[in-house]
Amino acid sequence: MARNGIPLFKPTRAESKQSATDYTARAMIDAEAKARRKKTERLRKLRLEASSAGEGEATKTPSPKRPPAGGRSRAKKS
């Protein structure tokens, strides 16, 4: 184990590469998560502003009717 932050043994070459890869991967994941949180907050703010601006009116129009999904049509038996 380490004493006062000084390791008692020198890491092997493979361990050093693994550590560097792990550090880089974690940094990339953290950066992506931070960007995702920032985007989510921005979109949430815009959505709240839009909903408060159009409070009295319907903001969503009903979608047109679509035929049911079923693939091929079946032949009617006579």
TrEMBL record:
<feature type="region of interest" description="Disordered">
    <location>
        <begin position="45"/>
        <end position="78"/>
    </location>
</feature>
<feature type="region of interest" description="Disordered">
    <location>
        <begin position="1"/>
        <end position="22"/>
    </location>
</feature>
<protein>
    <submittedName>
        <fullName>Uncharacterized protein</fullName>
    </submittedName>
</protein>
